Amino acid sequence: MKLLILDAGHCLSLALAREANRRTDTELVIEAGMDLEASRLAEISPDAVLVPPLVQPMDIEPAAVTAHAAAVERCLASCRELGVPLVWAVSDQLYEDGFDGPIDEHVRPEPRDEGLRQLMAVGQQIRDLHPRHLIIRLGPLFALEGSGAWLGSMLDSLVGGDELSAAQDVIFCPTSADAAALALIGMLQQIQCGAESWGVYHLAGTEPVSAFAFASMVRTQLVTRFEGLGQSLVLGELKALDHHHGQPLRRVLNCRRVLQVFGVHQKPWRLEVGRMLDAWCQAYRPSDQLLDRCGDNA
């Protein structure tokens, strides 16, 4: 199976590359940007095109959201022209106001934000015009590297001694980029073998948590690991934010359908964070900057 991945520097693109490198049944072609002309698509002739999500579309410049939506529309036009399946991953922030219970796929987001409405319009075009599609709604992605790598930037801030702010009244299910990549390739391999199970799927980690609780767990685990290495490093402090006046916003995706159709089990985010922290500490253990700071605090 050959996949064409757009936006090479995205944390999900990097995770897909790592997963494909461990397999012999998947070939990736990765484009640097988001533009995809029909001529280039015809030259590569992939089995599917995969577009990584725009990370935190509610929190970035409106122009960036508009540009992403326009790029996906152009990609859709090229895929339709050549009959190539399209896989588009989107942020759970499309559910701007959250939902009381776990959110099923049939619950259409109805955002007020203009940028989110643009993304919804693109998704509707994909559903209406291109039957061979997957729209994958993801929880907040975390990884160690790549654009949108929430965990990586969090660790940089903590070891840099910076104060880190996080909402304690927004509840969601963090999603490992590595776990999402594994699931996506598995889903596409099944489709390649004849499972014509196109449509919309939710994919997220288990155990709903607030952004502040997630960051607190990361900070605590990082302290524990440094202590285990015999190092004492003063980490940045955490600040809890409240945005919803005592009524937490829940944005929890129900992921039963992806299990029922493809057999994909959601990976506990705590285990994925632990694995990534182990890798991060191993990679940074000989770092001169960290050793200097540890020595200063010894």
CATH hierarchy class name of the domain at 1-143 and 174-204 and 250-266: Alpha Beta
CATH architecture of the domain at 1-143 and 174-204 and 250-266: 3-Layer(aba) Sandwich
What is the chains' assembly state? Answer: single chain
Strand order of the largest sheet: 2-1-3-4-5-10
Q: Structural class per helix/strand content?
A: alpha/beta
The named CATH superfamily of the domain at 1-143 and 174-204 and 250-266: NAD(P)-binding Rossmann-like Domain
- How many individual helices? 10
Under CATH, the topology of the domain at 1-143 and 174-204 and 250-266 can be stated as Rossmann fold
Shape: globular
Query: How many β-strands, per DSSP?
Result: 13
- Which percent band covers the strand fraction? 15-25%
The main β sheet shows up as: 6 strands, parallel
Mean of all residue-level pLDDT scores = 92
End-to-end CA span: 53 Å
Q: Tell me the series of helices and strands, N- to C-terminal.
A: EHEHEHEHEEHEEEHEEHEEHHH
Low-pLDDT windows of residues? 286-298
Radius of gyration: 20 Å
Bin the helical content. 40-55%
Protein name: dTDP-4-dehydrorhamnose reductase
Pfam families: RmlD_sub_bind
Domain RmlD-like substrate binding: 63-279
Features:
44% helix, alpha/beta, Rossmann fold, 298 residues, globular
Model description:
InterPro entries: NAD(P)-bd_dom_sf (IPR036291), RmlD-like-bd (IPR029903). This is dTDP-4-dehydrorhamnose reductase. Residues 63-279 form the RmlD-like substrate binding domain. It comes from Onishia taeanensis. The chain is an alpha/beta fold. The chain has a domain at 1-143 and 174-204 and 250-266: Rossmann fold, CATH 3.40.50.720. 44% of the residues lie in helices and 16% in strands. It contains 10 helices and 13 strands. The strands form 4 sheets. The chain has a 6-stranded parallel beta sheet with strand order 2-1-3-4-5-10, sandwiched between helices. Strand 4, helix 4 and strand 5 (133-138) form a beta-alpha-beta unit. Helix 2 crosses helix 3. The chain is globular, with a radius of gyration of 20 Å.
